[in-house]
Automatic annotation (TrEMBL):
The keyword Disulfide bond does not apply. NADP(+) binds at residues 158, 200, 204. The active site is at 56 (proton donor). It comes from Rhizobium acidisoli. It catalyses: 5-amino-6-(5-phospho-D-ribitylamino)uracil + NADP(+) = 5-amino-6-(5-phospho-D-ribosylamino)uracil + NADPH + H(+); 2,5-diamino-6-hydroxy-4-(5-phosphoribosylamino)-pyrimidine + H2O + H(+) = 5-amino-6-(5-phospho-D-ribosylamino)uracil + NH4(+). This is Riboflavin biosynthesis protein RibD. Converts 2,5-diamino-6-(ribosylamino)-4(3h)-pyrimidinone 5'-phosphate into 5-amino-6-(ribosylamino)-2,4(1h,3h)-pyrimidinedione 5'-phosphate.
Length: 404
């Protein structure tokens, strides 16, 4: 049977459904599944929070006997291996589904092609690649972690009309309006982790949680590049570390053991050339060059106090994103939002480790002391294609992506 417009319509619905649990399914992808019989949806589900149960068995259970002879629309190839749950391909066979339509083939070597082969061997018709580009976009975090051994990285920037992202010494500066800020909260809610530099953490004292009513529990892990453990104990991040996880990435040079541990190059079998510190980011200096607060307590005391507050400290050159990102992937982090600091943004851009750029452009003008944005719409790096433009109030969002 050839793919029809009805197939694309149902797959689009399955993809929309899959986004419901983005950032909440741990190491498993958030997959959407519809069971359709005679043009009517008789069962639907998305991968459960935490990653189990998978979408297919939930949708099949909802459909019950109506699944026999039906068509299943699945955003990712059904798994074929026995893990902590039985293979989803077996469940589709057992319920007597007649046809399975798939958006994206699973790159996991335990599954890739095997799920499709299992279904076909059971006499089930299979069509793959339906709305594949949209499906890959919805599965971007999972696919990037599987194929590149790192999280999918989104860089979010809000830029004023005169190309600034903030003002020196002014802390947080409101550039975008409430509609755009609400959209950023939604982005945080579907992301595994959010990252800022220590300069932003000190000057802005951000919370970095999801503040949309009803979505607070979907706040991402918060990561701070902090080579010298300068994060103030009075900061909002430290004060809320027991409610929402905070990871501080400190220089391996200050590791208590005197050697790398936690997120380390040696632990990953790599020995790359280090990326030079950001301009102004020398030992004891924050992003932007401001001197750190006077050491009221020594390094060991700061370490002890941070850990007592619930902050996790890992030791890895903060300017080694090509080491940091794979290490985060080993912790099950599939998507990362880089949200704070012009120099931190430039670090990831220059390393070629940004997959998506969300560029908000606002009509406000920032005057004296403005911090220049590391990019604007006229100098998007090569390899990115514009994928959309939206307006949120008076603010314009342009989105750019690399191919997956």
């Amino acid at each position: 049977m050839s793919v029809t417009p009805h197939d694309e319509s149902f797959m689009a619905a399955a993809i929309r459904l899959s986004r419901r649990h983005l950032g909440r399914t741990a190491t498993n992808p958030s997959v959407g599944c519809l069971i359709v019989r005679d043009g009517v949806v008789v069962g639907q589900a998305v991968t459960a929070v935490g990653g189990r149960p998978h979408a297919e068995p939930q949708a099949l259970a909802e459909a019950g006997a109506a699944a026999r002879g039906a068509t299943a629309y699945v955003t990712l190839e059904p798994c074929s291996h026995h893990g902590k749950t039985p293979p989803c391909a077996e469940a589709l066979i057992a319920y007597g589904v007649a046809r399975v339509v798939i958006s994206v083939t699973d790159p996991d070597p335990r599954v890739s092609g095997r799920g499709i082969a299992m279904l076909r061997e059971a006499g089930i018709e299979v069509d793959a690649g339906v709305l594949e580009a949209d499906g890959r976009r919805s599965l971007a975090g999972y696919l990037t972690r599987q194929t590149k051994n790192r999280p999918y990285v989104t860089l979010k920037l809000a830029v004023s009309a005169n190309g600034m992202i903030g003002r020196e010494g002014a802390g947080q500066v409101a550039i975008t309006g409430p509609e755009a800020r609400a959209e950023v909260q939604a982005l945080r809610a579907e992301t595994d982790a959010i990252l800022v530099g220590i300069g932003t953490a000190i000057s802005d004292d951000p919370l970095l949680t999801v503040r949309t009513p009803g979505l607070e529990a979907q706040s991402p892990i918060r990561i701070v590049l902090d080579p010298s453990l300068a994060l103030p104990l009075t900061s909002k991040l430290v004060q809320t570390a027991r409610d929402v996880p905070v990871i501080v990435v400190a220089s391996e040079e200050i590791s208590p053991s005197g050697s790398e541990e936690g997120l380390s190059p040696s632990a990953l079998g790599a020995n790359p050339q280090p990326i030079s510190p950001l301009v102004g980011e020398m030992s004891g200096r924050t992003e932007g060059g401001a001197t750190l607060p006077a050491a009221a307590m020594d390094l060991d005391s700061r370490r002890t106090a941070l850990e007592a507050a619930g902050v996790e400290i890992v030791y890895c050159n903060p300017y080694h994103p090509e080491i940091l990102l794979p290490a985060l992937a080993t912790r099950g982090i599939s998507s990362l939002l880089v949200e704070g600091g012009a120099k931190t943004a430039r670090l990831f851009l220059e390393a070629g480790l940004v997959d998506r750029i969300q560029l908000y452009q606002a009509p406000v003008v920032i005057g004296e002391g403005g911090i220049e944005s590391p990019l604007d719409a006229t100098d998007i790096p090569p390899g990115f294609a514009q994928t959309g433009t939206q307006m949120f109030g008076e603010d314009r969002l342009d989105e750019y992506e690399r191919g997956l």
